[in-house]
Amino acid sequence: MKELYKNWIISHKIDDGKIFLNDEENILIETDFARGEINFYDLEVNIVEMSVTNFSDGENKFYLHFELKDLNHAEELFEEMLETLESLKNRQKLKILLCCTSGLTTNFFKDKLNEAAEILSLDYEFNAVSFSKLYSTAYDYSIILLAPQIAFQFDSVKKTLSDKLVVKIPTKTFASYDSGEIVKLIREEVEKRKFSAEERAIMRAIGEIKNNSKILSIAVMPFEHQTRISYRIYERGEILKSETVIKGKLNVIRDLEDIFDTISYRCKKFDMVGIAIPGGIHDGKVDLDDRMIDPKINLKKYLEEKYKIPVIIHNNLRGAVLGYYAQQKKYKNIVFMSQPKGYLIGGQSILIDGKIFSGSHNNSGEIKFLLRSQIKNNEHREHCCYDSERILDIICFEIRAAISIADPELICIRSEMTPDLEKIKEKIIEHVPEEFLPDFVYIPDTEMAEYVLLGQMILCLESLEK
Question: Is the pLDDT reported for residue 54 higher than 50?
Fold first, then answer.
């Protein structure tokens, strides 16, 4: 089957690129904007690994592995890989915003930086703005560079634009308009940011973990135009293996089977699997878009019977709130809110006195029951709302509900379209006295899966102890 599959892949032709055998085993897909790799591993079974790397930022945009046992499934995954690669052809450049007092000096600097990016073949796009226009402009940018004369605003900007990478330009670099040093600084700061929330949480939580069980923790996270399925293998809190599958469409059963099948050959035995997934969880069934999973399937029962291992399944926000709680010591009453980009209905999870509050029907935090009075029926499952003011109204409505019911010390907000916490507070104060407001913290998408994985691992430990 392997040779048949390889020959089928090689027979494909793509625009602006080529597909060829790199050696006897592996296949390369080369274009001007991205590189694809398909590697074959002969273990006890044939394992196929696929990846697509975007040249503009050096990041993986597609990554998965699966056991080659169903040719139709393997062909579907290759077609999905090609779709992802093709989508990168016109992918937006990494947008970087320079900011100073008036914008005059940074306007000159940004021209030099754009020239340098072109010479170095970097997919960077620099722009400049005055500080007075920073917050209204920053939404479309990934990195904010602050000139030395406004460096004193760094803490404030970083807090308000917490989903952006905010960097201070050294005085010497700015004074000499040193483009090379700016490019180097950007790369170094991007690398530093990869130190994950989960690693911080593990350092705090490790002392409380007494169980030596080996646990597979999985976080299923559909994002805009992309699905990320992150997983970790833990043993007494130590990460033995960590990977993220990156693909387009989510097919819950097939995607989880691919992970289970390949992991079982790398790690022969684990004691429990914890799966964190969006949607309501009721008796092993997942209330999720039926394009992702048949709502009639009992996912827990299906996986336990097929793989002969205990499985627990929770909504991903249960893991997120517990994971966040584990990496800090200040708050014991937390509400974790998630409003994925483009979605009108998000969700909440409530933690009281350090314990997750599930409710009598496991429906605690199902904010959709409240929001359906605010949203038309045909919009419930549509994921295409990019009106930031409407999303802000929904977020604030959800926050008021959380304050009314749980009166938390802290509300974690994951909402890429409403990163300005001060704007949220101003709107909440219209209805809630300021002295009753909780603290707020913004959770960027880049850290979401890390909290979920840690929390799911802790939930597995609790289940094993019971």
Answer: yes
